Amino acid sequence: MNDTAAPLPATDRTRIRRVAENARYDRATLHAIIDAAYLCHVAFADDKGTHNIPTACWREGEHLYIHGSNGGRMVKWLLQGAQACVTITHLDGLVLARSAFNHSMNYRSAMVYGRFEPVADKHAALAALMDHIAVGRQAEIRAGNDKEFAATTVLRISLDEAACKVRSGAPVDDAEDMLHPVWAGVLPLVQVRGAPVADTRNTAPVPSYVAAWAAQPA
Amino acid sequence: MNDTAAPLPATDRTRIRRVAENARYDRATLHAIIDAAYLCHVAFADDKGTHNIPTACWREGEHLYIHGSNGGRMVKWLLQGAQACVTITHLDGLVLARSAFNHSMNYRSAMVYGRFEPVADKHAALAALMDHIAVGRQAEIRAGNDKEFAATTVLRISLDEAACKVRSGAPVDDAEDMLHPVWAGVLPLVQVRGAPVADTRNTAPVPSYVAAWAAQPA
């Protein structure tokens, strides 16, 4: 369970069959995809059917963390042990091939299967979320009070049943299509950081993590 | 069902309770969120549990379309009538509030509930996908042959049970926190188009939709 250098075992659910050469089962790839994300999509079923909820996420060690209001549907059902599938997808570009059916996308995706468990130390976990957003900010903000913490549930899911799929690079066409006279290549898509927008009532100086924001790739 | 000017009815599944002021039930918002996306996350359950699969999507009228290999798990179960929840989320920024628990994100998300149905006219549907990627390209590529079309299933889901949630703008803090001495504002995230990368073996001239790519916001 804790051999983080070993590849993730492929289970009935995580063994990738479609374009299997794009499958990645190493934890370094899984960690990088999660760490590059601010949100994930959490799928689970309740008495009304299957749901798919976007929510903030972060990673600590071999767990993916989320949080939510105690009264929300997602928190309620995940706490009751509903099986979840958490997916993160970064889209990196459109792949324009010479033939229609070889068109593709470049992407990095991660899927995590399992059941969430409640996190007892909510203070430490939500401080880690703040660090994921902006290192140093946790010490500057008005900290959560007992009432706010009491209304919030923090949950985590083990990364032990997970798989990634990554595609990058040029189109792959069939040999007999290589002379078809159409432009082939990649149209990149990139998530970038825009210039920070201060609140109109802000009077505080710009902290270093805000000043540095737009200079870095997201 | 076809009154596209009327708001979407809120059902047990689509009525938004958390931060309900961010809910949107108008079809114009729903269409805009889908049309701005190249991919969605499709949640459904099979005999192995709940899954959450990223896949290309596009819209025609009041349906969201996807496609996939006939042999894949997703196509197989959706064709059997598995209930699905399709979610699209565009992340627009991190919202830095003065207090920990008022931090948020700016985003545009759409959720669609229902069951997919097979699309008989795969040629027309996949031409619409190509138009979503690059208008004009459909006439230039090596078209799909009978074998390729036969191996692919196109599915669509009605937009009749759907809801959107949109947050934009500045942080919203409690009145008593407004003087807390910390920077407050938004750190924007933007999906942008990078410079096209021609395949190393490309010999075709650059079409207008490729030339125009990097000049437009994604």
Describe the structure.
- Chains A, B: It comes from Acidovorax kalamii.
- Chains A, B: InterPro entries: Pyridox_Oxase-rel, Split_barrel_FMN-bd.
- The structure is a homodimer of 218-residue chains.
- Chain A has 218 residues and is an alpha+beta fold.
- Chain A has a domain at 20-91 and 105-169: Pnp Oxidase, Chain A.
- Chain A has 5 helices and 12 strands.
- Chain A has helices spanning 27-35, 73-79, 122-133, 146-150, 208-211; strands at residues 23-24, 39-46, 49-56, 58-60, 63-69, 83-96, 104-115, 117-118, 152-158, 162-167, 185-193, 197-198.
- In chain A, the strands form 2 sheets. In chain A, strands 1, 2, 3, 6, 7, 10 and 11 form a 7-stranded antiparallel sheet that branches. A 4-stranded antiparallel sheet of chain A has the order 4-5-9-8, with helices on both faces.
- In chain A, strand 2 (39-46) and strand 3 form a beta hairpin.
- The longest helix of chain A has 12 residues, at 122-133.
- The radius of gyration of chain A is 21 Å and the shape is globular.
- The first copy, chain A, starts with 22 loop residues before the first strand and ends in a 7-residue tail after the last helix.
- The relative contact order of chain A is 0.19.
- The mean pLDDT of chain A is 95.
- The interface between A and B is large, with 94 and 94 residues.
- Strand 11 (185-193) of chain A pairs antiparallel with strand 12 (197-198) of chain B, so a sheet runs across the interface.
